[in-house]
Specification:
322 residues; alpha/beta; seven-stranded mixed sheet; five-stranded mixed sheet; 10 helices; 12 strands; 38% helix
């Protein structure tokens, strides 16, 4: 399935443009950034359940960090350099140890636009090699150009997409200060380059955007068939807490991850039936029962787009079988 077909990337750009019209004036302070503890030395900050805007500094995703005896390992870099600076300030309230690594779960804008700040601090950036295609794509370039307008001044002409220093081809382990980090590729799911980060000594799993807790996921160009299978892999980790890419950390992964999985299955079932029976998308969407998910945050901005992208995906899957 081509990742960068134009009809896929126009929708996110349109969402950014519409959001800019609603944005309020920027404030330097930005929305509150509260550090939550999920393990003996593991923490995260939770982004807002909103579309990215000038007012919220694009603080719409989570980032985590683990404090080791030798330094701090950060998971994801947030959606603007200013947010990365604020995360660093929050870390400094807990430790003066250097930030040694930033592990990128996937190269979506709201998780990577802060990377340049951590790079300036001397941190090593770690990501899956599959993300290199996105970095070099027109999609990434156009998204950044749009963000420089729609998310100004937090995204501007100085903002750039930072490649990894260490590209991973498969599962690997990273040890910092004697603390083991298990990095496992689980894509192509939400993106081709999805990584999970598990810290056995903390029993904490950072799941990236495989898992959206308490809100509807953004499906985008996802391989939803593989995504459903990857969610089962998340449940195989011996984790007391799972930190999603969006939403609060879960201490009941079976229940909370199950909600994301149920939604993806519902999308595939409803849109798959429509494709199989040659029902046009609009008719299929209107006839589908969305009541189980309609009250969830982000249903309005995300659901129709998710359904349409899934419909297109399943058309492609059907054609590939012929």
């Amino acid at each position: 399935m081509p990742r960068f077909a134009p009809r896929w990337w126009l929708a996110p750009l349109l969402a950014l443009t519409l959001n800019a019209a609603w944005a309020q004036p920027a404030t330097e302070a930005g929305p509150p950034m509260r550090v939550e503890k999920v393990g003996p030395h593991s923490h995260y900050v939770q982004g807002l359940t909103q579309l990215g805007s000038t007012r919220n500094q694009n603080f719409i995703s989570n980032a985590g960090f683990v404090i080791t005896p030798e330094g701090v390992v950060v998971v994801d870099a947030l959606g603007s350099p200013r947010l990365a600076e604020r995360l660093t300030q929050a870390i400094r309230q807990l430790t003066g140890k250097p930030i040694t690594h930033v592990i990128v779960t996937h190269y979506h804008a709201d998780h990577i636009y802060g990377l340049q700040h951590f790079k300036q601090l001397g941190a090593q950036i770690v990501a899956h090699r599959a993300s290199r295609e996105y970095i070099q794509s027109d999609t990434a370039r156009l998204r950044l150009e749009a963000s420089r307008t729609d998310l100004a001044p937090w995204i501007n002409d100085q903002t750039r997409i930072v490649p990894a220093d260490l590209w991973l081809d498969g599962a690997t382990s990273l040890k910092v200060g004697g603390v083991l980090f298990e990095l496992t590729p689980v894509g192509p799911s939400h993106t081709p380059e999805d990584l999970t980060v598990y810290v056995p000594s903390e029993k904490v799993l950072f799941a990236g955007d495989l898992f959206f807790n308490g809100r509807l996921p953004f499906v985008g160009q996802a391989n939803s068939r593989q995504w459903v299978l990857s969610l089962d892999r998340l449940l195989a980790f011996d984790a007391r807490a799972v930190v999603p890419g969006h939403g609060a950390a879960s201490t009941d992964p079976k229940k909370d991850i199950g909600t994301t999985r149920d939604y993806l299955k519902h999308l595939r079932q409803s849109m798959g039936d429509a494709v199989e029976n040659f029902v046009p998308f609009e008719e299929a969407y209107d006839k589908t029962d969305w009541s189980a998910f309609a009250a969830m945050p982000m249903f309005g901005p995300a659901n129709r787009m998710n359904a349409y992208n899934t419909y297109l995906l399943l058309e492609q899957e059907a054609l590939s079988k012929k």
